[in-house]
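thoughts on both lines:
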Amino acid sequence: MLDHFKNKVVWITGASSGIGKALAIELDQKTTTLILSARNQDALEAVASKIHHATTFVLPLDLADSSNFEEKVHTVVSKFNRVDILINNGGISQRAEVRDTTEEVERHIMNVNYFGNIALSKALLPVMTQQKSGQLVIMSSIAGKFGFFLRSAYSDSKHALHGYYESLRLEEEKNGILVTLVCPGKINTPISKNALTGDGSHHDKMDNNQKNGMPAKACAKAILKGIAKKKMEILVGGKEIKAVKLKRLLPAIFHKVIKKQSPN
């Protein structure tokens, strides 16, 4: 599986914690170059210190501000000549009902999870086109497949990614550019602690869904296996991912089942 990443330049956003951090650590091999991005440089440096074989390059980046993305891409390409795989993993979740969520919070979540995400991919497209190769790995969620309690804006932003990248996949396949959408379910990461409440403050709680979820390391291994197989979509998690198929085949039964699930 890791042979797919040999001699590759892999750029991971949201690499300071959770799934992004686990992916970076799993990709620790001599012939791989890892570009680690997130807002917190100290946290990125801490992740880089756990990587002993791969070449690492820490590049702070804020998905809420796309004004310097072309500059960031230029920095990476100037140093490494190419980017083979972008794992566009950075994002933020939500824990609030629609009626309690301000428009400012909704716009911020959309700006980070959708507009920031697509802006970085778009900034990389000319590089991958020139290379005549590249793989865009987009971190969606099972919340990108169906709505759920307390996650309206988060689910909205993830649904939007599917429409955008399914279109981009069709357009860019002729240029050798692959698109993989990843839909994690309940994974043991700090995503719920960092989620925004209706007024924009942090939820600051580890939900049981995350506490009892799949370990981030196991999740990362499954994602990397899917990337190596060049899958168009990767569903990863526990029994909750079966809900995706249930919604598609039996939507009325899905509704009865999903409304009984705990939002936390």
Summary: The longest strand covers residues 177-184. The chain has one domain: 2-258. The mean pLDDT is 97. The two ends are 34 Å apart (CA to CA).
